[in-house]
Amino acid sequence: MSREQNSASKTRVLSVSTIFPSSDRPTEGVFVHQRQKHLPQEFKVDVVRMRPSFPILDRLRPHLAPQSKDFETVDGLGVHDLRFYYTPRFFKSWDGDHLARCLLRWLNARPETYDLLDAHFAFPTGYGVVKVARKLGIPSMMTLRGTMPSYLSDARAAKIREGLLGADHVVAVSQSLADQACELAGQDLLVTVIGNGVDTERFRPNDRVSARAKISGVPGCQDLSEGPVLLTVGGLVPRKGVQRVLEVMPAVLERHPRARYLVVGGGGAEGNFESELRSRRAALGLETAVSFVGPIAPERLADFYCAADLFVLATANEGWANALQEALACGTPVVTTAVGGNSEVVGGQEQGIVVPFGDTPALESAVLAALDLEFDRSVIARWGRRRDWNDVGREVAHVYREILASR
């Protein structure tokens, strides 16, 4: 069979997301990329990366506008960049309709047809893709991820409900999101929970001393041998909660004067609040104890997880926190907040401590307690490494087949 015949015999899937790795933002949406990359070979996947665009702001802030090409290949997947109109801050419930119009024009202009449209995130992508799929008579799947709860208090909730009811199948990365979806829809939905996986080749335990030596050349990561190291990996946005960890650091330093807190990450689709975080660090007198390391390439993250005594994620909402699972896969205990799927990721007390969101005394007590506990890092690593992206690919493929068979 020729390559062209072999490709034609495959099921063609168009995966649509507002975030996906690119030449200018290689770490953005890695979890979407990993899921699509690990689908079985019977599926031919194309990707559309939907970029919100407001022309005036794009011209005024070119450093924030995406610089990637209209088409590029990312790890064997063809990725198309489409820019859809949106208005910053206002009329946000219209974003999904703008996205749908842009995607529909693009699909109508292409010679290729697709057997299935696969949308990531409930809004604007999920709603917009389901709307397009119904217009074209193509089956659709919507995957719910961590941003959905932040949209349920405004007009976007009605659009999300419309998308949930219109999709052929809904996937949620955590049971908490699945429950929220059914509550919003006002009825039981066909929802399959498929949590994210972890790259078990990359994220594995390593000796802390060796890991600290490996990152010692990174600015802000010198002299880590004299006290406990706390770590957060995530975007520098309020939702991820670095500011909440900063508030408990004075108490940590009172008990552990040589403790260090490393913050790995930078700005992204949700903004960049690094200047505000640096100001708060200065106000608390934490300049020598807290380092903003900046973004780190995925292939180097494991060294940071392994170097840490404790991973802390005081997040406001999550679907499935990939950084939590990566830390656990490296054998690092965690302290996190009881939001979204965090409790599902952590699993139990052998892996870490989960505290109520917004309870600063509880967060402080948990961090101090975790630093005093003797966790079995091999037990933690076994839990964190229990499922990889191949497992996720097989589970998603099963849902694809069910959708296509029902049609």
Q: So what's the overall shape?
A: globular
- Sheet with most strands: strand arrangement: 3-4-2-1-5-6-7-8
Q: Provide the succession of SSEs.
A: HEHEHEEHEHEHEHEHEHEHEHEHEHEHHH
Q: How helix-rich are the residues, as a percent range?
A: 40-55%
* Estimated radius of gyration: 22 Å
Oligomer: single chain
Briefly note the structural class of the backbone: alpha/beta
CA-CA gap between termini? 28 Å
How large is the count of helical segments? Answer: 16
- Runs in which pLDDT lies below 50 for 5 or more consecutive residues are 1-5
Average of the residue pLDDT scores:
92
Largest sheet: 8 strands, mixed
Short structural summary:
The protein has helices spanning 3-8, 30-37, 55-60, 95-108, 122-136, 156-166, 175-185, 208-215, 242-255, 274-283, 298-307, 322-329, 342-346, 360-372, 377-384, 389-406; strands at 11-17, 43-53, 71-74, 77-85, 116-120, 140-144, 169-172, 191-193, 229-233, 260-264, 290-294, 310-313, 334-337, 352-355.
